[in-house]
């Protein structure tokens, strides 16, 4: 009996375990049937984790920073390119203005005058340097053993200074004559220059020539030679600049005269065109009046030149009055004719001008 009870109990336990297993599997199956379709959905795969979202945010921030830097570099390069283009355009405009300015007779004349002044100043300075050299030579010749406490030491310098003043005065006269385009008589200037050069050469080299010290005489002749060359060159350059300035003045006068003639020619052309247009208009109206009168005037008027001219003048006056804006009613009262006749004249003139259907003078 006991054994039977144990067997039944074991069977019940096995059945219970099997049932529990079946129920558990059934529950798992139900859960799987619900989860399986949901796990296959794309949305579950697209959901980002917190770490992924943080990484994407950092990447987006870096990309935006790179874009801003790239835009900044691009904009800066464009601004610099525009600045370079603007500076290049300014340089081109300045070069064109300068070329235009230097090609004018006024600028060429001013440039020649400035160069003449500076050339004269440079030559005067060089001659003064040579004169200072010559003054030292003269001092050594006249007072070789004196000191600055001896008045002769100072007067020995003054001897050459007197000659220097005469030379500079001659050169300044040539420069002033060039500035006012005055051609001087160079024969007198050459005479004074030769006399001054003789005195300078005698004071510099005379004592050494007398002593037959030819080497020292040649050395002391260098300064007077430079003075003579400078004076001759200054005179020649002054004469050439005087000719250049005279030619520049002539070119400037011709340019002014050409500009003035051009303005007068333009005014004359405008006046002639206006007169021609006015004459053409008058001739057209006259021709229309003669044509209309020739078509409709009576035979008696055609044989009488005075009567014919009077009729043509009247028709021409009527047409001109209408062209000037007068109303046909006013024209008929002014010329004591019928308004219908005025309209017929206007229509006929329109036909002649247009060559088609009747039209008024305004259409012409």
Could you please describe the fold and organization of this structure?
The structure is a single chain. With 364 residues, the protein is mostly helical. The protein is 87% helix and 0% strand. It has helices spanning 2-39, 42-46, 50-102, 105-142, 151-179, 186-210, 214-220, 222-296, 299-303, 305-323, 328-335, 339-354. Helix 5 packs parallel to helix 8. The radius of gyration is 58 Å and the shape is flat. The model is unreliable at 279-283 and 356-364 (pLDDT under 50).
Keywords:
mainly alpha; disordered C terminus; 12 helices; about 375 residues
Mean pLDDT rating: 76
- Protein structure class: mainly alpha
What is the CA–CA distance across the termini?
Answer: 147 Å
- Alpha plus pi helix count: 12
Order of helices and strands: HHHHHHHHHHHH
Shape: flat
Largest sheet, in brief, is: none
Low-confidence stretches: 279-283, 356-364
| Quaternary structure classification | single chain
Helix content: over 70%
Please tally the β strands and state the result.
Answer: 0
Strand content: under 5%
